[in-house]
């Protein structure tokens, strides 16, 4: 293998330039998988479309000549060896699954940018001290089963026994049954954990999915911490009844109780939504209604609740108040309300050395950046539990994401990918 060019320039990678056209070509190509109305993309985890997007990535990795490893749940690792193939690897990537009617960039952009970075390193025969792996994690989105960062949680060893107990999709398919089909059971969850000594660091490029970078006109965000969710289902059992003959005072209407709870979640969370109060956000994003017909009083509803914050204390306070409200509504409306926990996670600080390193990569190119937290969850929050993890953001137009209107400008995408490459080279060649 050729000795590295001038170590200084190789160290910060500033002269190793990605192929922008190829990057955008691949992003366009993969974005057609799962395309729907109004340019939306739907690739729910373990769906045919999502599997096809993973096939696309594997094909690209083969073309580049990466050493491909696919673990039991389907996480994909494409390795570019270095002068020391046994050295701990620098991982870079994100996810390819999407929400329903989502955008083209959430997750996907980070995987394709990592692919382009590694392809560039291979093409230019850049000799690095550590191997580099492009990684695609399965099931980052909670959209199908309510459980997020599935693949990266398994790699980080962050999934235990009954964690999937309440993880079912809209059709009643249980996540545990799908995993059993892949040979993954409660008894062998730890077998998917990656030995942390084989990883030197993890880098993820992602769209901001918020309005800050666009508002302050900065092309790059350097992420310091990731907000974490507490998610649960509230199952409200009332009494299904005839909508014509049942007097109002005799009803146990599960949907009216749900409506009260939905408004209460917003009201409680707003008490903690200011930055100085913890920037808590709360959403009831899905509801199931039974029997769900016009002439029957709803007897049962199921709400999916998602509460997040950068500060655990504020989030936990808000969740406690929501739970107290749930019990108060149940008592007053003589309905039964069961809380089915899905996940309770603590906010995750990212590695200060990587925050500093990514900042320096921006400064080396005179790029203005913003140091900021992430309100959205990411695979980096799991990888941070086993290795130094760093993230960089590019702007989202009007801050929109999880929508067909999700958009990031090609020049921002290319700049983000270039900085990801610069950071990969530095993490690979420096003592972290
Ligand atoms: O839901 C989220 O925070 C992310 O988009 N997966
Ligand atoms: Mn998302
Ligand atoms: Mn994402």
How are the elements arranged and paired?
Layout: H1 7-12, H2 20-31, H3 48-64, E1 67-70, E2 76-80, E3 89-95, H4 108-123, E4 132-137, H5 150-155, H6 175-181, E5 199-207, H7 212-216, E6 220-226, E7 228-237, E8 241-242, H8 254-270, E9 281-290, E10 296-297, E11 300-309, H9 312-332, E12 336-344, E13 348-349, H10 352-364, E14 369-374, H11 380-383, E15 389-394, H12 410-429
Parallel strand pairs: 3-4, 3-5, 5-15, 6-14
Antiparallel strand pairs: 1-2, 2-4, 6-13, 6-15, 7-11, 7-12, 8-10, 9-11
Helix pairs in contact: 2-4, 3-4, 4-12, 8-9, 10-12
Bound molecules: (2S)-amino(hydroxy)ethanoic acid and manganese (II) ion (2 copies).
One manganese (II) ion binds at residues 95, 106-107, 140, 206, 378.
């Amino acid at each position: 293998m050729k000795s590295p060019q001038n170590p200084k320039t190789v160290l910060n990678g500033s002269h190793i330039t990605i192929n922008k056209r190829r990057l955008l070509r691949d992003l366009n190509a993969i974005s057609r998988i799962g395309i729907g109305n109004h340019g939306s993309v739907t690739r729910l985890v373990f769906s045919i479309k999502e599997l096809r997007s993973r096939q696309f990535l594997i094909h690209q990795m083969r073309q580049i000549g990466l050493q491909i490893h696919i673990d039991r749940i389907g996480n994909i690792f494409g390795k570019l060896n270095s002068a020391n193939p046994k050295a701990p690897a620098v991982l870079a990537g994100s996810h390819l699954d999407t929400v329903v009617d989502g955008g083209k960039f959430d997750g996907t952009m980070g995987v394709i940018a990592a692919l382009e970075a590694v392809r560039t390193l291979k093409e230019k025969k850049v000799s690095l001290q550590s191997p580099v792996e492009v990684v695609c994690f399965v099931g980052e989105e909670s959209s199908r089963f309510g459980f997020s960062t599935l693949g990266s949680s398994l790699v980080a060893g962050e999934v235990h026994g009954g964690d999937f107990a309440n993880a079912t999709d809209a059709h009643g398919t249980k996540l545990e049954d799908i995993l059993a089909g892949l040979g993954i059971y409660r008894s062998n969850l730890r077998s998917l954990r990656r030995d942390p000594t084989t990883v030197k660091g993890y880098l993820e490029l992602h769209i901001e999915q918020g309005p800050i970078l666009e508002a302050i006109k900065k092309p790059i965000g350097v992420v310091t911490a990731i907000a974490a969710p507490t998610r649960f289902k509230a199952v409200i059992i009332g009494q299904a009844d005839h909508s014509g003959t049942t007097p109002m005072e005799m009803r146990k209407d599960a949907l009216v109780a749900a409506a009260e709870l939905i408004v209460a979640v917003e009201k409680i969370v707003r008490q903690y939504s200011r930055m100085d109060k913890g920037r808590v956000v709360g959403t009831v994003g899905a509801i199931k209604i039974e029997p769900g017909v016009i002439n029957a009083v709803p007897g049962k509803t199921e709400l999916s609740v998602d509460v997040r914050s950068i500060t655990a204390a504020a989030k936990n306070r808000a969740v406690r108040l929501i739970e107290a409200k749930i019990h108060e509504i149940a008592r007053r409306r003589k309905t039964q309300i069961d809380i089915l926990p899905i996940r309770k996670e603590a906010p995750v600080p990212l590695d200060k050395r990587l925050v500093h390193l990514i900042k320096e990569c921006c400064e080396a190119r005179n790029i203005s950046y913003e140091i900021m937290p992430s309100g959205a969850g990411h695979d980096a929050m799991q990888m941070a539990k086993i290795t130094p993890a760093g993230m960089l953001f590019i702007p989202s137009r009007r801050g929109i994401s999880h929508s067909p209107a999700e958009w990031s400008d090609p020049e921002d995408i290319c700049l983000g990918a270039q900085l990801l490459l610069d950071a990969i080279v530095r993490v690979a060649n420096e003592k972290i």
